[in-house]
Design goal:
Helices cover 29% and strands 31% of the residues. The strands form eight sheets. Strands 26, 27, 28, 29, 30, 31, 32, 33 and 34 form a nine-stranded antiparallel beta sheet that branches. α3 packs across α4, α7 (214-223) runs parallel beside α8 and α13 (497-506) runs parallel beside α14 (519-528). The protein starts with 15 loop residues before the first helix and ends in a 6-residue tail after the last helix.
Length: 675
């Protein structure tokens, strides 16, 4: 008998059948109404996306400092994800907040068919333009004559410092490392000025002539009232001479040309004048407006004429300042001394700077503890157009910063704090620039295999703040497609234990330029295995870093031709055909490689020569003018008249320029950059 089915009890959740709510009625729209609703929602999404994307730039202006993917997406009316995806497909990994370099931005623009132009870069000469006004309306009623600030500019080793040594009766040039000036020096000399010819203190700024110190020369031109362009009679105008002229013209100051070394054998004054005239400075004797003074810093001939010309030029310029105002001026150089602390060499351009004054210099403030002139003498006050070494600052200011005296220390701190945010953003931008996403970060396959960017972390310590920018600029001029320098720290002052700890943690190296290294720090470097390199001449540092960077790239394999061979006859053999002929040039040897050509056609590209016969004998080398037979397993269909090039592979040290070219060629093959 089948089992009896149990009767299930329906549960109404305690409410019974009558207590359950009635079922909801479903509204069924027609197919046409559903389609209309879907289209409306799609239109709303498209409108929202278009509003969020903004307006697509017709021509994108690419800034030199680069852009983030987010900013680039906004300019191209794309989503952030589209830009990141495009870079990912090209083998470049990045996030939306990183900075893309100009080449990477151009690659993205090409992908989305957007035209672009490079933003006008800020030239070094722009740094020579006067940007600060030191006279206020309140000063106009108390103006008094002031002596000029004179900047000596020109090419390296043209006698700028020697000329100043003669004027100051000093011998600074003899004590300079490498015999060249590598920083701005501010010196005071008593020079006859005015109608009565009384001695007046004149500040002379001595600028470096080496090509790496362009920013320093521009800063000197910005401070000056009169620019003296120095040109050696035995050398004529050189690249840095032309640059100095451009800086002086950008500053809009009077120019005086000094032709030096006229006493030197081989000097040609007329040739030197012609070379300067080619730069757009016509001598007065030729009908121009620029005074040309010929002189010798050794004998002193012509130096008095130069000083007289400076006095007349200053008189025409009618230089004025208010000596009773609170001082304003510019920092020429700054450094960190173990005993004196942070110090700055300043030039007062209006007012009078006194001991005890509260000053702000950029993001730094302090109270003037002492004033020292260029001869080491203490001073109580410094007037307009004078220079002094200031001690008592709370930190090391940047060279070129404007200093201002305030009524109280509270006001000075407030002014410095207002500049602190700007200085912080500048530091962050510089750091972001070093971590910029570039095409070179992608792994590219070259003849030497997969090539990936190598980074060298650097801690740079120098003697003065102005040298930092010059050294960084000089090192960044080195091609860095394969090996890149990353400055973790670049600051004035001696090397400290914390610098060693930073280098050890980052596996970096420490470079010093005329900066002190205590014995305890040297010992710490040895204990932690930190590489420490010390320099006093900038081109020694640049050459040494070039060698280090090239050493990290290893060697490259190159062909070296050793001889040429012409086929005269072809002989059969058990293993293949032998090409018989004459060695026309150089030699052929067993183990070398052969490139066979028949007219313009290449028969074999790199066949190894495995057998070399001379009559019935196997030989290893056959010299020029000798007949022999060649055999390579790579090819045996030789014909009479075929030409064979013999070469060997050698390993050579790779240079930065060659590596950059090889890398660029590989990128073109991947179509990451334009051909």
């Amino acid at each position: 008998r089948p089992p009896r089915r149990r009767r299930r009890r329906r549960r109404g959740r305690g409410r019974g059948r009558e207590g359950r709510p009635p079922p909801m009625k479903r509204f069924t729209a027609s197919a046409e109404e559903q389609l209309k609703a879907q289209r409306a929602r799609a239109a709303e999404r498209r409108a929202a996306k278009a509003a969020a994307a903004g307006v697509k730039a017709e021509i994108l202006e690419i800034p030199a400092e680069g852009m983030s993917p987010a900013a680039l997406a906004s300019e191209l009316a794309l989503s952030d994800a589209e830009v990141v995806k495009t870079l990912f497909m090209k083998g470049i990994m990045c996030t939306v907040n990183q900075v893309l370099d100009a080449d990477t931005i151009k690659m993205v623009c090409d992908e989305f068919e957007v035209e672009y132009v490079d933003e006008d870069a800020v030239s070094v000469s722009d740094g020579a333009k006067k940007t600060s006004e030191f006279l206020d309306e309140a000063d106009m009623d108390n103006l008094a004559p002031r002596p000029p600030i004179v900047t000596i500019m020109g090419h390296v080793d043209h006698g700028k410092t020697s000329l100043l040594d003669y004027i100051r009766k000093e011998a600074v040039a003899e004590g300079e490392a490498g015999g060249i000036t590598q920083g701005i020096g501010a010196y005071r000399a008593e020079v006859p000025m005015g109608e009565d010819g009384e001695d007046s203190p004149v500040v002379f700024l001595d600028t470096p002539g080496h090509e790496a110190f362009s920013a320093m020369r521009a800063r000197g031109a910005r401070l000056t009232d009169i620019a003296v362009i120095v040109c050696a009679a035995d050398d004529g105008a050189q690249p840095q001479t032309a640059e100095a002229v451009a800086h002086a013209q950008a500053a809009g100051v009077p120019i005086v040309v000094a032709i030096t070394k006229i006493d030197k054998e081989g000097s040609d004054i007329e040739a030197a004048k012609n070379s300067i005239a080619a730069l757009g400075l016509a001598p007065e004797e030729w009908g121009g407006e620029v005074p040309f003074i010929c002189l010798s810093s050794k004998t002193g001939d012509g130096v008095d004429d130069l000083l007289e010309t400076l006095a007349l030029t200053a008189e025409v310029a009618e230089l004025r300042a208010n000596p009773d105002a609170l001082a304003k001026g510019t920092v020429v150089e700054a450094s960190l001394d173990r005993q004196a602390g942070a110090t700055a060499t300043v030039v007062v351009q209006n007012g009078t700077l006194r001991v005890g004054d509260s000053v702000s210099v950029g993001a730094v403030s302090g109270r003037v503890r002492s004033l020292t002139d260029c001869y080491g003498e203490r001073m109580d006050a410094v007037g307009p157009s004078e220079s002094a070494l200031v001690a008592g600052l709370g930190g090391v200011p940047e060279a070129g910063d404007v200093f201002t005296v305030h009524a109280s220390e509270k006001e000075a701190r407030a002014a410095a704090k207002a500049k602190e945010t700007e200085a912080r953003e500048k530091r962050l931008a510089a750091q972001a620039g070093q971590d910029m996403v570039t095409i070179s970060r992608s792994v590219v396959k070259t003849e030497e295999g997969d090539q990936e960017l190598q980074r060298v972390n650097v801690i740079l310590k120098v003697d003065s703040a102005g040298v930092v920018e010059a050294i960084k600029a000089a090192l960044n001029e080195l091609p860095q497609d394969r090996v890149s320098l990353r400055f973790l720290l670049a600051a004035p002052g001696e090397v400290s234990r914390s610098d060693v700890d930073l280098a050890a943690a980052s596996e970096g190296m420490i470079l010093t330029f005329s900066a002190g290294v205590p014995a305890a720090v040297e010992k710490a470097c040895q204990e932690q295995g930190v590489e420490l390199r010390q320099y006093k001449v900038i081109y020694d540092m640049v050459d040494d870093m070039r060698d280090m960077m090239e050493g990290k790239m290893g060697t490259v394999k190159e062909e070296e031709p050793i001889g040429s061979f012409v086929v005269k006859a072809v002989f059969g053999g058990r293993d293949g055909k032998v090409a018989g002929g004459l060695v026309e040039e150089g030699r052929v040897e067993v183990g070398c490689f052969l490139r066979g050509k028949r007219g313009k056609k290449t028969l074999v590209e790199a066949g190894e020569l495995t057998q070399l016969r001379r009559f019935q004998d196997n030989v290893t080398v056959v010299e020029e003018g000798t007949e022999c037979g060649l055999f390579t397993p790579a090819f045996d269909a030789w014909e009479e008249g075929d030409e064979i090039e013999a070469f060997v592979y050698v390993r050579k040290k790779n240079t930065l320029e060659e590596a950059s070219k090889s890398f660029t060629d590989a990128l073109k093959e991947k179509k990451l950059v334009a051909s």
